Amino acid sequence: MDKKEYEYIDLASHRQEMRLVHLLPGAWQDRVSCTLEVVTLNDKPRYETLSYVWGDTTGTSPIFLEGCSFPVTHNLQSALRRLRHTNEERVMWVDQLCINQLNDNEKTQQVMLMPAIYSNCQEAFCWLAELDARDKEFVVGEREPEPEPGRHYGGGTIKSAFNLLSLIASGDHMSELSCFQFTKPSSLHIKPDFAPAFQGLRRIVEQPYWDRIWTIQEQILPPKATITFGPYTLPLEVLIAAGESILLHHWQTCCALAVDSLGLEERVTLQQVFFKTTIMGNILSGYNKSQNILIEVLQTARNKNATDSRDKVFGVLGLVNNWLTTTPILPDYTLTDIEVFAQVTVNWITNRRDLFILTGNMLRRPHIPSWIQDWAPAATFEGTEYHHETGWNALYWKYSASLTKGARSKLLSNSELQLEGIFVDKVSRVALQMVTNDWNDAKFFIDSWEEFVDISNNSEREYVGGGKFYDAFWRTLAGNLFWTGVKTSNLIDAYRKAVPEDRRVFGLLREQIRLAKPQQHVLSDETAGFEKVLPVTARYRTLFVTQKGYLGIGTTGIKEGDDVYIFYGGNIPFITRSKEETGDLCSTETTHKRCELIGDCYLHGVMEGELMKEPEEDTDSVILC
Length: 625
Known about the structure:
The protein is built from 20 helices and 21 strands. The strands form four sheets. It has a nine-stranded mixed β-sheet with strand order 5-4-2-1-6-3-7-10-11. Strands 12, 13, 16, 17, 18, 19, 20 and 21 form an eight-stranded mixed β-sheet that branches. It has a two-stranded antiparallel sheet with strand order 8-9. Residues 47-218 form the Heterokaryon incompatibility domain.
């Protein structure tokens, strides 16, 4: 049956042509065999889609494609073998087979079609992995039995894990779920019969599938999506509901103390269910409401990976259904990653006259200009915690440092952006970065920050931005915000501006942190207003003091001598570093100051536009490069 190497025939992009795979029937041990059919979306063909990770592309397994031996990744071969019917064909769209991967023009055209391809399929199968020796259901060399009906929680680890997710998705309090033993005061334990289910759940959340950028649209756009692990399946909406239930009962504090009493492995597993599903759930919610904005989708999906860094942008374009006043971006594989990322940044700033795109962790590879967000895979920057950055970015809209003045920007070249704004001050001293895993860790850093500003001797002195110094200190750590606990679909609506009465709660929090034990992630209901704030405003960030005495907290990498600016169009201040100091000059000849953008910050006393009341002649122009 082996013939020469298969050769693709070009598609007619103007007719919205695409290929479909006919997965031929076969027994479990038979080699996978497929044929291809060229169709047009205009004819509304019936087909299913496969969502999966390619896996290691250096190792392949052969299948038959149109009678030719065709190499595919091991994971795809496993998925096709599992999904193949015994007695009838299965018609599917599978990117590795349906797109000529050696033709960049075709890839561009087909990627543009992918939102329509997934939206018009009958069902998407989200393939996690095949069973292996770790799973009790594993049988060597033959098709494993289909799952038995009913809600049985024993047996194999994957089957019981899917049933466990259905149980959690019910929305009941953690103490009311049959998988837990609840003993007062607020202590949870896993029932022995459910231990295999938690082992399987850990296997599920550890699969690389959840970390791939393309899988988000492949899950959200189809009318129906099914999670598949070996022979076992679970509706995607059940998984999302389980994540929402964990969020509701843990984050909203009613079950926080109980969950915190679980063993470390079980607690981390439940948190991973939330982390893996919250990205999908948030984007799905925005998509259903036609509220998905490109920048917010990119930041929400910041931790996702892609083999090609350009796909960090192209892979989410189909999920954007609110372009505001910006021009829609189209996938184009003839562009470099710098050109793609610059297009995103310039598109936002010039059309929205806002600098939200410049916020967050500005870590980047050396060839990326400092003002361009490097959307490269998260693994590029080892140790970066992007899910904490996402929370801080959302709080951008709680401030108005530049009042309502829109961005004044000018693109000088592909690597240089000119902005106008107000110079605030220079950084004079920088404290340790707060890197914590629990409240016990936080004790050391808050102690060191208090010593850094000599809080014991400075508490009652006047602060440069108004009020007492101690009030400026605790408000800086909290970003001058307090979490209300109000249930809301919008994260920022659950926060309000801090008031004088919150000082007592912060003092109580401070005392409880001093008594915190290792691995303690929850303190008390009374201090929740700050417990839900500090991990967002202070964790993985750095306290600093300016020459005039302003207190600030900002992104990693701030150094003594850095400048603080409020640029027009920015709700929060930004930290820059002179290029003359680094010896790395921009290419444009100009008298304007050349700077590297270090990141954003909270600077107490300037966040509500206090400095924007100064005369316009004090405006500075800065070139970011």
